[in-house]
Amino acid sequence: MEENGQGTRGHPYPPGRGQGGRQYSCTLGCLPTALVGAGVVTYLLEGPGWLLVVWLLPVALMMSGRSCLPLVALLVVMALQTWGTWWLLVPLTLFSVIARTHYLGYRIVSSKMRLSHEDARRRITSLYGAGRPRRASTLRRAITLLRGGLEAAPPGDPERLWYLNTFGKVVHVMVAQHLDPAAADGVTDLLREAVRHGREARATTPTTDPDRSDILGTLQLSLFLLFLADRHSAERSARVAELDTALLDEAVSIGWEAVAAAPPTDPERASHMTNLGGALLFSFLLHRDPQLLEKAIQVARDSVAATLPDDPDPSGYLTTLSTYLQIKFMMVGDLGVLEEAVVVGRSAVAAAAPSPLSRSANLNNLAAALYLLCTRRRDPQLLEETTRISRTALAQVPREHPNRTLILLNLSQVLRLTVERGGSPALLDEAFRFGRKAIDATWLDHPYRISSLLSFGQVLRDLSVRDGSPAKMSEAVMYCREALSIASSDDAFENMRNRCRFVLGDVLSSRFDMAGDPGDVLEARHLLATVAIAAESNDYRLPAAVKAAELDLLADDCEHAMVMVELAVELLPQLTSRRIGSADRRHLVAGFTGLAATAAVSAIAAGAPERAVELLEQTRGVVLSDAFDTRGDLTLLDEGAPDLVGAFDDLRQEIERADHASASPDFSAALMGTGVPAKSNHQQLTERRARLERQWVRLLGRIRERPGLEDFLLPPPVERLREQAVEGPVVYVVPHRRGGHALIVTDAPERPVRVVSLPAFTQDAASEQVALLRAALDDASDADLPAPERQAAQQRILEVLSLLWDTVAEPVLRHLGHTAPPPQGSPWPRIWWCPVGISAFLPLHAAGHHADGAPSSAVMDRVISSYTPTIRALGHARAPRSYASGQRPAMVDNPSMLVVAVPDAPGSPPLPGVVSEVDLLLRKFPTATVLPAPGTPATHDEITAALVNGHIAHFACHGLADPADPADSRLLLHDHLEHPLTIVDIARLRLPHGELAFLSACSTTDTDLRHADEATHLSAAFQLAGYRSVIGTLWPVNDHAAAGIADAFYTQLSHGGTAPAAASAFLALHHAVRTHRARHPTMPTQWAAYVHSGR
What we know:
- Pfam families: CHAT.
- By secondary structure, the chain is mainly α.
């Protein structure tokens, strides 16, 4: 059958065929004669000429061709003679047009008019086919003709099947071009009629009929559209529980049947697959079954593959696949899925038909995918491209088209994100205008009404904060309330309702911050807690629980805050499923930056400091801990379950390979038109990861069944955590809006955790200190500033260090009894700092009054400081090495040393001090290996290979901390532009001999706020790779100062000999920094940046 129903079935009726045709033929054949006769008689008897016109005009309209010309001329003459009553012709002419339309409806079966079924099909097809936009009146005329044809072709007539099937197709065109299932009640009646005809067509079509797939496809789409119309009707009447999901189930079943019946060469096969995918997608949205979404995606892939080369507009299949992939990304957070959606979306734009409507739809889909990508990547150029594409889509869509609302909504969201990322504040006004237009284009039960209201409410909230306008904030609350009132009360659409609750709760929280009304907090807490506890999906549960706990603390309801915190911690592992890669897990966890501090403060307020430590361990370094789990010591397992050691080691290595693997970009869009069912490399990787996760869970279950291994790889309780405080306490520093706290973990069994209140160290105070510090660092390193200004910046840094001593460090040390330097000859006490949230950017180890002549009033004058991301990370640094083969390397008295020196990385300023730094190292350690060799470049592959067998690694080069994507932070080698040595590359290494890494590079312990609790920086990556101790920096360090500190460090480390004692790296750094401070006390940029991490 040809596209759009233009083919034929059976044989045309011969003229006059059929009893009904003869009856209508007689009636209509006599009508002109009767009208003429009646008109003439009336004219002769009554006189008014216009009356004759009334009767003769319908006759003229019924006639065709030249035969009507004499009668038309007569009508004109008579009309002129009766001009005084001309205005009566207007309504009478309309009546005549109606008469003609009614008359033509019967010409279809009139043998005397000589119109066969073949002519009827041709006329009907001309009214709706050819893929062009049609007027609603034209399509209604086609529906009228089809109804007449069905009356003329009773059941059993071979022509009836064509009318039954074509009726559904015309209704589909009507719905697509003019009717919205959510807007027009009349469409439901049309669709019910189409479903009735479609079911009859299916029942009367033999399974061997070559057109059966087309008939099934028409019925499937009618069922699906009727389900959508019923769904919106149910939402309008708040009777969603009465929604007949059997229609959707039948649409899915018939869809599979249509696809199975369509041969590979059928031009409609891809369309059947797309319609089936739509039904599967809605089944997923109703039932929240991930397998339904996977089936929809696979069907969409298959539709792309089934697209024939001569398809005039294959973009629709690509756009559908891109949309489904975007939905999957929003469900699981897998960046690879989103990247594929973008690639497929670009392919759709390239393949789109030249019509503005097609291009607009495809551009809007691509913009939606790019918007989601912008939420993952802080790329200004990507955001600009997204805005440009959204504007183009809006310019090309017709003003009255249903898609215009969605485009307006998306553009408003893109502009709002641009402002959040530092764009012009004026763009928020533009986002407001587009948001207002989106609302104006929707009505009460419009499918985008709720989303438009919520988005507009958020824009108003942002405008209120920007302008300090309580009125706008109240208006934002009003729109969010309206969205919630419209949302369905049935569980089938609970996710949308909970989205409304979450946004309203968030906006009410913002209004409380502005106006301080306790009622806003009370309502927001209720809304957010409802979402956190009752929601079925995880879309809003975790963020709602975190936000609710924060508000509970504001309301001094510590008990309920703990309930919300415990729920959030319970939900957190769902974000770190190994079904997605480590980079995706880091990003998802980073979205809940404040969770750790909120959890700790809630537990402290509830009088449970031990639980506060356990919660901090479970909410920080989450991905890091997962990595440690796959690299831990096998001694315990070897003792308790020796028969499972091999399986465990093999599986954890395979998991690591899959975790760091990336799919090649041969996405399924490349298979368009091949006829080969597509499965992207990324989908295969996802399936591999899911399989490995299932195996991992089963294996852990078997291990935990063994005596003594019941808590194997479970979060350790505080009784075990305190074991890592034997050599010195671990101090968590937690800033919070309620006031800061220090949690001191000691090895005391009776009281392992102590709490020190830090009332002045609030979240705002810590943020202010970080801002002052970074501004001063920028000025101090700006060579274009005059020397006095640079020195003034150094003084501002010292002031930050003094304030940090007064508000944080001194109270902690005083509590520990470190009120003065240790006695001469006594060992230095140690302390491990574990800063939470924004405090990770502050040099706690350097806090003190350094320039006032009181050297004892500084941390480095009382204790030796080290850092650790978590207590579990410290345990990993101290744990015995794990070797899969069971063969452990022999201990060496003279550890090997690798020096990587890159003073001239491409695109970076030269580092002349590197040369002297390397010379100093070689004088101390003549056997050290220096890379690169003279005349050769230092490359990624060469360096990573050399690290495997070394004990000590010293990097003298540039380091780059990437604030947009901290996982992309790198050390700059000679090939860093093509093959950078990033955090990801370092973390995937397994370095069983690693003892010490000295990163004499810039900002190797720096990250951004969202990733601070995950320790996404170069120093942590080297720890994960296997180094027990890592020396890094918090900010860029002067080239020559770096060489001097390195010289002092290795002098102390080797005790004047040639064998460095890596285990005492913490002590060597402590003395080197104090020595440099003594020489340059007013230059903190040179000595306060160095930090020791690890054992």
